[in-house]
Amino acid sequence: PHHNTLYKTALALQDHWKVLRDERVGMFEFPLRLRRRSTYCYSYHWKRIVDERPEAEVGANEKISKMTEFYRWAKSENFFSPAHEMWKESERHIPLKNEYGKSYIKVIRVTDLTVKSSAPAPSKKLKPYGDSDQIAIEQALRAIDNTEMSIAFALSLTTSARKQTTLTLKRSIFDAYDGQEVFLVKVGKGLSADTKKQKSFKIYIPGWLASQIVTYLKSERYLKRLALIPAGCDNDYLFITKTGLPYYARRDDPGNRVFQAIPVGKSLDAFIRQQLTPRLRDMGYSTYVRFHNLRATYATNFVMGNLELVDK
Predict the structure, then answer these.
(1) Within a 10 A sphere around the Cβ of 9, how many other Cβ atoms?
(2) CA 68 to CA 213: how far, in whole Å?
(3) CA–CA separation, 4 and 10 (whole Å)
(4) Close Cβ partners of 167 (under 8 Å, ≥ 6 residues apart)
(5) Which runs of E-coded beta strand occur in 156-312?
(6) Which of 52, 89, 225, 236 has the fewest CB atoms within 10 Å, measured from its CB?
């Protein structure tokens, strides 16, 4: 699993343990009474929360899913043998196609631990920014004047790259930039940046932005950061923090074995929370910033910019 997945699993198990501690329920106790079984105790805990805050449903079920994975593993390793069933389980079959177009069936196990809100489902988080919000974000970024963050936002907005792909881009790929109007970069497993599930595809960086990145890579600001990268770590990153660590470590970075905490883009999240959002409020904007929304914004801009072709 990706180290970020392991991190989220650890947080879920920590939360599970804290709930059981507060309820005075043993982690491996499965008595006759349902509510005293550790798995159902945790599920009921989140059911109470979701009844009050329907928006917590997705996060609750993610934690519950990671908790059930842990118990499946512990039981399969003969770590314990429950006196009564841990949950009731059923299967769902979802037809899918792989990257080559071949059909297959994915089997998903569903348990009765899943919590559901009685309220209408909240609107999906992913949404595009309109023109006014895009202008607000750009103005706030200019006012803050953080070069790395300005480049990261511009990259995602103009290429639809996720946070992981944006922040794991290699600096060496820009050696090939020679004034192209559009600079093509291949990303994915073994290529110029990591992607979700390591799928391979191309992103198209506007020439004006690639040119600015080349200028940045020659700057004293970048070279100072590059010199601070710890020995034994990959130094082929476009995005490096002022302490010399990558903003987001690639899967194959040998430094993953020695990093005190493997970087997974938390610095970007902190920038949004601590600098960008307060600056937007100071400037009179109510824009809610979520980096992932830049993907939806790219898609919307792309469609709106090509409506004449649709008409033709």
Answers:
(1) 18
(2) 45
(3) 10
(4) 152, 239, 246, 247, 248, 265, 268
(5) 182-187, 201-206
(6) 52
Rounded to 5 degrees, what angle do the CA atoms 112, 121, 65 make?
35
Backbone φ and ψ for 203, nearest 5 degrees, come out as -120, 155
End-to-end CA distance of the chain: 47
Alpha carbon distance 41, 26 (integer Å): 10
Q: Torsion angle, CA of 11/14/20/24, rounded to 10 degrees?
A: -150
Query: What is this structure's pTM?
Result: 0.75
Q: Are strands 103-111 and 182-187 parallel, antiparallel or unpaired?
A: unpaired
Whose structure tokens read 């103005």?
139
Q: What tens-digit pLDDT sequence spans the chain (312 residues)?
A: 777 788 889 999 999 999 999 999 999 989 999 999 999 999 999 999 998 888 888 899 999 999 999 999 999 999 999 999 999 998 888 888 877 788 888 888 889 999 988 766 556 667 899 999 999 999 999 999 999 999 999 999 999 999 999 999 999 999 999 999 999 999 999 999 999 988 999 999 999 999 999 999 999 999 999 999 988 899 999 999 999 999 999 999 998 888 888 899 999 999 999 999 999 999 999 999 999 999 999 999 999 999 988 888
Structure tokens at 120: 């209408």
